[in-house]
Amino acid sequence: MPQHDWLTARPIAHRGYHDMNKAIFENTMPAFERAIENNLAIECDVRLSADGKVIVFHDDDLSRLCSRPDTIEALEASEIDGIRVGTGEARIPRLEALLEATDGRVPLVIELKAGPSDPDVFARAVIAGIAHYQGPLALMSFAPSLLAALKRAGAACPLGLTAGGHDGKSFEAHRETMRIGLDFVSYYYDDLPNDFVAGLRDSGVPVITWTVRNERARQITFQYADQMTFEGFDPA
Fold first, then answer.
1. In 34, 40, 141, 156, which residue has its Cα 20 to 30 A from 104's Cα atom?
2. What is the DSSP string of 103-157?
3. pLDDT confidence of residue 161
4. Using CA of residue 157, residue 233, residue 231, residue 66, what is the dihedral sign?
5. Residue 160, SS3 per DSSP
6. Cβ count within 10 A of residue 157
7. What are the structural domains, with CATH classification, of the chain?
8. Cα torsion for 166, 168, 171, 172, to the nearest 10°?
9. Which residue intervals define the domain GP-PDE in the entry (predicted)?
10. How far apart are the first and last CA of the chain?
11. What is the Cα–Cα distance from 218 to 66, expressed in whole angstroms?
12. Chain centroid to CA 31: how far?
């Protein structure tokens, strides 16, 4: 799929180019700005606030990163805007802030996290949020329900399945999800090689891996996939 060559052209910074949450925290604007400065693609996660705004955050709740028990889905965006991530000054960002900062300079790979939000409402909010974005951007999810909702909502950008597994039952489920009409796969590196991913690559479907943190994982990636989603080191 030559139109998606940008997806595998550069290493993809997992939740931005953070420093393993020492000073530059994952899924924050400093991590995204550092990725842009280093010409790295950006992977991030999004959830839907209680009032329907697309928020950049990974976890099911805010306890690990923000020391509070709330969830993104239970709070309105105006409440979320003031919540600090980690020990620094960075706040939980909205997707629109990331899009404005990136402005097409590096590719974006955005993962929709499954949760209590209605899949169709979530999908429509994300598509509306990226409607006028001009740069290279892809959407992906572990959740077939969210991928199907993105298709129903008319997503025009590449869509991908985030996945793992190395047994026949997993492969059968993944193939069923791919029939939605997906464009790429993000696969757990330690479940490679396998027949499912090999078949995708043979048919021209791009495969990226998650999450590469050492040389062994990097070697597996470039033997059996096309690009890595990485963290914790300088990919250069």
1. 141
2. TTSS-EEEEEPPSSS-HHHHHHHHHHHHTT--S-EEEEES-HHHHHHHHHTT--S
3. 98
4. negative
5. strand
6. 18
7. 2-230 (3.20.20.190)
8. -160
9. 9-236
10. 26
11. 31
12. 14
CA angle 121, 186, 157 (to 5 degrees): 50
**In degrees, to the nearest 5, what angle opens at C-alpha 16 toward C-alphas 15 and 18?**
100
Residue type, 52: G
Does pTM top 0.70 for this prediction? Answer: yes
Helix (H, G, I), strand (E, B) or coil at 44: strand
Helix 95-102 to helix 29-37 angle, to the nearest 10 degrees? 20
Query: What residue type is 159 in one-letter code?
Result: L
pLDDT tens across 122-177, in order? 999 999 999 999 999 999 999 999 999 999 999 999 999 999 999 999 999 999 99
The SS3 assignment for 166 reads: coil
Alpha helices, DSSP H only, in the chain? 29-37, 63-66, 77-80, 95-102, 119-130, 144-152, 168-178, 195-202, 215-224
What would the pLDDT profile of 217-228 be if each residue is shown by its tens digit?
999 999 999 999
Residue position matching structure tokens 């950008």: 157
Let me know: does 197 contact 224? Beta carbons within 8 Å. yes
